[in-house]
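tool_call: predict_structure(chain=1)
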Amino acid sequence: MKISLIVPAFNEEKLLGASLAEIKAAAAAFTRRGWRLQLIVCDNNSTDRTADIARAAGAEVVFEPVNQIARARNTGASAATGDWLVFVDADTHPSEGLFDDVAEAMASGRCLAGGATIRLDEAPLGPRLVTHLWNWISRCKKMMAGSFIFVRTAEFRETGGFSLEYYAGEELELSQRLKKIARDRQLKITILHRHPIKTSARKVKLYTPREMGGILFGFIFNHRKLTGSREAAYMWYDGRR
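tool_result:
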């Protein structure tokens, strides 16, 4: 078995080094099974030291000139040679326990794709409550959070990957297409929860409550407008770090 770990990154010099170190440490869950690893960082047109930091960590660096999360993930996946793809965001830290659970799901032969529940680092009560609500929805509806996704390579390529019509929420649309394949082939989408994945709460610090509320309102009441425009989904693209 070979696992391709894919990290999309846009101007992530502050967090990328620590994230790659934790990803590599957690990947011991794969290597002790004798599985091979490939670590890919997709530099999504960064203007800082993102690519240099990735190379120093031993990652294979690919470049995507168009600023779009879906494109960055797809470009990373296009360079992957593994049987499974594991997408991890550049501000996200998986644990070895989580990767152990991922490996078990992969080895079971019954899993097509999956994700994990989320734990925010250093977040106030409000965002933590929203995260708890998302975790409940994710587990009930088998919806994968973009910060962490694993999927069989063959089926990912069969779907065409992440839709380029989306500038945010592309993981939710992919989840729907993968769920259909899973039903047709009697496979499972698994949302792991024993070891939630830790991801940065930096947006809570970088954006005002009004800005955060506007994005949440947009997702609920005008989803297509928000996700279909880089300008509307500015929180993912304006470069605040």
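agent: The two ends are 36 Å apart (CA to CA). Proceeding to next step.
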